[in-house]
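Proteins fold reproducibly. Next comes a concrete instance:

***
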Amino acid sequence: MGDSSTGKSGTAERTTAAAEGDVVVLLIGMRINHFWAVHHWMPVFLAMLRMLRELRGHPERGLLGHVLLTASPRTYYVVQYWESKEKLYTYAHAPDTFHHTAWAAINRKERKGKVRGHVGLWHEAYMVPEGSYEAIYADMPAFGLAAAHGQIPLERRGTRAKDRLAHRSKKAQTPAEAVTDRM
């Protein structure tokens, strides 16, 4: 789990993600609106790191992998890959997690008018059905979706995007498709 771009050398081949079935992706981040308001945005930044550490220690919660990114000197975010939308929702609402504690603190500050304008928070969640995603990695270590779900040689899913998008896992195939695959 985590950002697998840290120091691993690339593979001298083309690969794809070994994801089977639907894929759950969460983009979550913050925007620093006022750099001078460090006491407002730094706790948010550190809270995200703490949540990722908590999830790393509890793989049963469903986070498969993540990548930390920046969009600008003001905007930082995490791309997260989850086992299922149910596990994502369960973590988001679990009263025994740091996520719950952090959001309660933010909501208290917001009700008192103490956080408005200093730091922006956002998230986008995507439940991507099988057949609606594809990935290719050239001379790369496992990254992103491949780090979360595993990495396989490109040829196992097809050398063209059209072929990779047409891939169906065994559990998603109809009996007729399964027979065709064996031929």
